[in-house]
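Worked example

This section walks through a single chain of length 126. The input is the sequence exactly as stored; nothing has been trimmed or padded.
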Amino acid sequence: MSVYTRESVEVEFADESVGETRAVDAGAMTISFERLKAGFSTEPLAVGLPGDSCQCPHWGVVLSGRIRVLGSGGGEVVEAGSAYYLPPGHNVVVDEDCELVEFSPVADRAATLEHFERRAAELGLV
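Given that input, the structure is written out below as tokens.
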């Protein structure tokens, strides 16, 4: 058995305008501890993926703040204290600075992050 805390996991990504992600692969899943800033959206990063949306499923819990999930079925707000499942075909907008813990299949997440990093470079965000 392995136990992970935000402090025990290495920083994967940090940016003053976006926030910070710490992630570790555990079995077939990536566990990510995320602090995201209000205003961040995955929409511009997802352009070029099927449906211009994230194709990786995620399970998580919002510890503080609020996110808005956009998908083919419309939008839904997820607030502090709520657990969620995001099927492939979604984007996320951070409405209020938030902290969350998320679980995602390793290979799907890696492919999505590779695309997001490429798009961020194209947009001059990195």
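What to look for: The radius of gyration is 14 Å.
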